[in-house]
Design goal:
heterotrimer; A alpha/beta (609); B alpha+beta (369); C alpha/beta (170); A: alpha/beta; FAD/NAD(P)-binding domain; 4 domains; 5-stranded parallel β-sheet; 21 helices; B: 369 residues; alpha+beta; binds iron/sulfur cluster
Chain lengths: 609, 369, 170
Amino acid sequence: MDKPKANLFSSIKSLKYLFKKPVTIEIPKVYREAADRYRGFHTNDWDKCIGCGTCSEICPTNAIRMEKVPGYEAGNGQTDERPVIDYGRCCWCGFCVDICTTGSLKMSKDYIFISPDANDFIYIPDEEGINKNYPEEGYRRNDETDLLELERVIMGHLSAEERGDSFIEYVRGYSKEEAIREASRCVECGICTYTCPAHMNIPEYIRTIWEDDLEKGVEYLYKTNPLPGVCGRVCTHKCESVCSLGHRGEPIAIRWLKRYIVDNTPDDEYEKVVLAEVSKPGKGKVAIIGAGPAGLSAAYYLRTLGYEVDVFEQMPLAGGVMRYGIPRYRLPDEALDRDISFIEKIGVRIHTNYKVDKEKFKELKEKYDAVFLSTGFFTGRKLPPHILPGSDHTDVIAAMDFLPKVRDFVRGMGEMPEVGEKVVIIGGGNVGFDVGRSVVRLQRMKYGKVDVTITALESEDILPADREELEEGREEGLKVVFSRGPKEIVIEDGKIKGLLTVKCLRVFDDEGKFNPQFDEEDKLFLEADQIFMAVGQAPDYNYIPDDIMEKLEIVRGKIKADEYGRTNFEWLFVGGDIKEGPDIIHGIANGHNAAKAIDEYLRKKYGIE
Amino acid sequence: MGEIKALQLFHGPNHPGMHGNFSVHIKVDGDIVVEAEANPGMLHRGFEKLMERRNWMQNIALILRVCVVEPDINEAAYSMAVETIEGMDVPERAQWIRVMILEMARIANHLMSLGGIGGPTGLYTGPNWALVDRDLILDIFEKITGARVYHMYIVPGGVRQDVTDEILKDLEKVLDDIEKRLPEYRELILEHPIIQKRTKNIAVLTRDQALSWGVTGIALRATGVDYDVRKYDPYLVYDKVEFDVPTVDFSDAYNRLWLKYQEIYQSIRIIRQVIEKMPSGKVREKLPGNALKWRVKKGDAYVKLESARGEFGYYMVSDGGTKPYRVFVRGASYPQGLLGIEKGLPGTRLEDVAIWLDTMGVCAPEIDR
Amino acid sequence: MKEQELIDLIEKHVKYEEGSIEVYAPRKLKFILKKDDLVDTLLFLKRNGFVQLSFITCVDWIKDNKFELVYGLVSWEHKLTVLVKTFIDRDNPKMISIMDIWPTAKYYEQEINEFFGVYFEGNPNMSKELILENWDSMPPLRKDFDPQSYSNEKFEIRIYDYKMEDKKKK
Ligand code: SF4
Ligand code: SF4
Ligand code: SF4
């Protein structure tokens, strides 16, 4: 390029612009539309926003504060806070939009806002926008700009082939790398904590994984849950259903992370943490009837408060539903033993093979200051013959009569329970699948082939069992038929021929009550030589003396009590299934709460501050 | 009347010939500078400290403020430093896009400083024109990144979002327009007798001075060496595009302007190649987890690139945590802005001080980080 | 020159700390020296093509009670960049100025002096203000300097006067 020479006239050429249209525009006469990706004023969809506060965490300028909205009722899975943006600080980076867990926070193409009052620049984003003009959306988050990791770290499973004929635990558990990676997805919003029945310190213990400080993690676990090894495997993980990450992606695998902490902390460190908890010397003795989740939980926390605790269990082993209900492939004895061993180590006495009856109950009441009942729903229910003809046949078996036998068999304490070659199971809940998948395994051992069908009243989309149960069950060879109501068990020559079912049109009526409707014409016959019923469990209150029973209120099988398990008797507390209905984590929470109430009662009784 | 030997003056912190708030204490004898000392600090925002207190992603919103006219070099140097320490791969397409962005920024910067010579020389048509044409580039930036000046677009692992073909078409058109306009700048500025008078043989820098002070970029290249990081230590995909590094062998204010003018053509050439050759594919890799939990391996690295003013780099240290342990910004104009002023400014006439500062590319925010 | 050639050259002529020489990216190397070997090495490198000092900076390793000084050198001729590093004590930190080798060092050293409190012997600008004016606290880039509490102490916190009720969506 040749070098420019001085030229007096060259610059005069620019005079031509004197007569051209100016390139500038006159504001506000002309409005300049912003580009499609423009990062302008925020909007926030209040119906979607859950107040998780993640936007405020990422904000590099601290422009976002989370504030309580007066008079706003937060539903399940959200908080009553909403983001407030200080436009004196905001730098329009859009990271808040990139990370918003629900996608409620957006940016618009709106970019002009004028006010003489600095306070006006504090803005609570809503759908209207700062100029109240419902502005057009500008910058959008996409996969590339997303600052969350939406995909869960895949949990290793044994393949259906490997697991199908044995009862070994098939969920492998996270390795260290996997666990840290999964933990690094958590935004520590704490939304899950509210929903967890035991209000576990979830974000805190997930953080300990991320920081690789598991000892601290164990400490957090035991604050609210003395059975973390069990819960880390079989908890119904209600927390995961509200996890912030679940709105746009897969929720954090909270349950598996908990299991990771338990499985990967060496015993001695574990012991150090757990035993350190026992500090306060309390005064008083507590009897606990039933060594299930609620009983053990209450026992643990009472013991940490310094009380003498005796737990009475009618079965040969402690654990209740965890020992005799849930199949071994989901919850191996070792995990349960470990949890229970720590409860015993801190001084809880567990008396097994000890059946409490009316007489013994009275004795216990005399000997102890307080009694906590957690005897569970342990009796299997069957549909009576007038509802389902043929259900009184000996080859029709209730789930709760079968599952304990399977577990005893697997641990070498009993014979293999009878299984037929063709089996039908009534009930599409988790227990139905527990039975189904256990039968699958037994059939493989015995016959080398599988023929098990589950019939559910519900259609696939409202199946009460967990999704994974359905998927994994099918992998193992389970057949599932949906929307089928049992009509009759067909018996010929004293032998079961099969189950006659009719089409179930709907399960719930318009008010949402259980009220199934059938199409009697649409019939389906399922061949079987053995039928299981997983249609619910029932309590057994025969051990409670009549005079006491009279004064207890029973509502739909459950004993009425307040949130802390207090009954009409000041010394009597209840928890677990008989208060809440079957669910392990609720039981643990009940136990913990009851421990607090019992503590209060005993301190009052003995006048201790 | 007594004789006044030397007079002390403050040049700046506000001066039409100086971009940003930066002051120079000068002593003049008559109208010749006899002593000069830079007095920075007016713009210091403590970026290096602030960076230690923000996580890897949040810093993207901060670092680009080190340079207003060419913010993208900060994003690029920061991201490349993170990638070097972490050993992270950047998708091919993202590298091409980065080159495109950096060259767009270079054009915007050169346009501004080409027109900006109107400030110290009193020729105000130049700056106005330059701002209009720079705005064309900013329009494209707005389309690609969603912001006009502070783009926050280049991030560790790639760029924030892909560019569409439609935007690329618009960009091509803008390049054509600018290319058509460039001869007019030549006429208006470079051929202008006043500019020629006011910049030729003024603010001269020798090659020895430049090398011993550590001056890089256009000021150095005007002394006849073709040192350009893009050629001598190619980063991104600069080794896959063709371009020349213009040089002249006398570094005065005029020649430095002249080089800027030529570099605009080279940048246009590079961007056209990018548009043509850019492969398709993803544009971003991410660290594991969510952005609040990103951690970068323990380690340190110095990463440099060629900014419009010379070698620009980040020295970064990570202790394996969620935030940088230490970040140091090597501003391109640090040598001329401090030592240069002390050693080079004496001998200059008072009215040329602003021209000296302007064409040497002294950039206050690079010194005041 | 290739990276390896430089390594060979250095290994032959310079005492660096065991195992600390590293090519961390193409054309970029770093190595750690004993404090006393630093000046000789820098001189040696300058004579061997590293004419440009790009920067000097400092890192505060407060847990180890050390400052790390980092010198960034560039050789355009060899197309290489090296980081030469050394550790010095954090208490009463001192280093010899290299402004006779590279005059630019003067200001880098002054900046480090101001922000970390390292004293460079032979540099006339020590304890002279460069960036900070009337600074009355510890050198601010030290790790134990907390900008938040400093600013809380020095500046008023602005309280905005607004109520959530007024702002709430109807
Ligand atoms: S991140 Fe999204 S959902 Fe969470 S509080 Fe902010 S705006 Fe609401
Ligand atoms: S755009 Fe950036 S600075 Fe503004 S509120 Fe969102 S995260 Fe904060
Ligand atoms: S697990 Fe989910 S809900 Fe719980 S703190 Fe983490 S991100 Fe929030």
